[in-house]
Amino acid sequence: MSDLAKLSDGALAAELAQRAGELLLELRERSSLSGKDLGNEGDAAANRLLMPLIREARPGDGYLSEESKDTKERLEYERVWIIDPVDGTREFGERRSDWAVHVGLAVGGEAVTGAVGLPGLAGGTVLRSDEPRDLPPAPDTPRMVVSRTRPAKEALAVAESIGADLLPMGSAGAKAMAVVRGEAEIYLHSGGQYEWDSCAPIAVATAHGLHCSRLDGSPMRYNREDVYLPDLLICRQELAAPILEMLAGLREEAASES
User: Fold this and answer.
1) Which residues does the annotation say bind Mg(2+) (predicted)?
2) Nearest to 250 by CA among 166, 185, 164, 160
3) Is residue 197 marked as binding?
């Protein structure tokens, strides 16, 4: 049995996210590429590292990675590892800090274990579902992380209604972990994502006691045949009910106008 195979699921996810982050930082340091070319190189390199290690450590599980060809064989498995080797390829290629590495595990369709590496932060950090931290006190004015290039209209409407400050940020993982780290209180997204964009972040956020759901309040479900998972809400528990009520009102208003 390999050393990785001896690790718990949480420790395995964290170890793999850490290794991938270190590889990506080294690659970016020595590469003469930039932009999309550097991002593509990072995606491929991290995937080449992660997928063989996961198969070695958990040969009886299923796998889904953004950078590997999907097969429906994974639908036969109860346990499926869902990977995003570089979440925020654009930010990685632009040599920014707001990108992430996602290593998540869905069991029975639920994101139960995950690690999100934030290698671009000073010293690097990995947030884990098996080692939750206490959330810091929330400020009087809530902060909402949004896309730095295309903030969701629902997010803008909710922020205006509750008086939240907007914090533009890069990757999905970086935004989700900003809420976990206490740098924001809300991450609301409706612009389209896939399972690998949220599986690991949802596992980590849930373990930290945050509210996690679709925008209609339904649970996040994984390892489906269609991996498109377009929206999510991660926020402090006390903010969930008013935000979901507000979103329901927006849907009713849109339906009446159509």
Assistant:
1) 66, 84, 87, 197
2) 160
3) yes
| pLDDT(252) > 90 | no
Q: Is 37 annotated as a binding residue?
A: no
Tell me whether residue 43 is annotated as binding. no
Question: Is the pLDDT score of 220 beyond 90?
Answer: yes
pLDDT at residue 253, rounded to an integer: 83
Number of domains in the chain: 2
Distance CA 71, CA 80 (A): 12
pLDDT of residue 1: 64
* Domain of 101, in residue numbers: 4-128
Six-digit token string for 19: 């290794």
Q: Please answer whether residues 45 and 141 qualify as being in contact, where contact means their C-beta atoms are separated by less than 8 angstroms.
A: no
Q: Quick one: angle between helices 35-57 and 9-30, nearest 10?
A: 150
Sign, CA torsion 181/4/200/99: positive
pTM (2 d.p.): 0.96
pLDDT at position 250, please?
87
pLDDT at 122: 79
Q: Coil, helix or strand for 230?
A: coil
Question: Does pLDDT of 123 surpass 90?
Answer: no
151: CATH: 3.40.190.80
Task: Please state the separation of Cα 168 from the chain's center in Å.
Answer: 16
9 is in an annotated binding site: no
Q: What φ, ψ does residue 94 adopt, rounded to 5°?
A: -85, 5
* Separation of alpha carbons 60 and 79, rounded Å: 8
How many residues make up the chain in this entry? 258
Residues 59, 149, single domain; the answer is no
- Check whether residue 163 and residue 108 sit in a common domain: no
Q: Which of 237, 236, 202 is nearest to 127 (CA)?
A: 202
